[in-house]
Amino acid sequence: MSLARSAAALAVHAYTASGALIGWLALRSAWDHDPRTALLWLCLACFVDATDGFAARAVEVRRHASWIDGARLDDIVDFLTYVFVPLAVLWDQQLLAGPLGLMAVGAVLIASGLGFSNLHAKTEDHFFTGWPSYWNLIAVYAVAWQWNATGTAIFLMGLAALVFVPIKYVYPSRTATLMAPTLVFGAIWAVQVLLIIWWLPAPPAWLMWSSVAYPAYYFTLSLWLNVEGQKSRRAEE
Domain spans of the chain? Predict the structure, then answer.
């Protein structure tokens, strides 16, 4: 094992861990009642999360820094940036409030904690099992559209329940079926989300509505692949 390869592997782990600092900066912005900056920080955290896996495989972190559990590190950072901080942003903006809001926060934290701890949360064929913790993206739309606090709480509790429903969701960078269009459409959507955040508190309506196309594509593809998977299993029986 060369020193250079070990250093490269450790650098990738440090890159993953930097997401925790980014999450703290997002939380600090939420404390300052600045949802725009908080959400921009969370976008940067998403970028780190989307790219560290490629880097980890490229430098073979499991081989050259085997004493560090990269998957566990990734989960720790993701829980902060995908779950904890988005809830703080929603609470600060009074999009969650009162007893019902607290119930929603509890439901999301508990469901996400169990979801992250689920040994089968990621399947061997590269899907997520149960609702993935996309709470940061929910926060973007809730802030941009200024959802009603009661509606937000009910919606979040509904999604929290879906964590335990064994539906397979596309893992955009790993699911083989239609990966190329998924990544291309996802990149376009990422730009749309950045523009929505940049233009807060009043992003253009055309941008908001057009940005819904990719989530619709994502959930339609996920449901279609679930149906096709069930058909294949029945045919094999």
Answer: 3-236
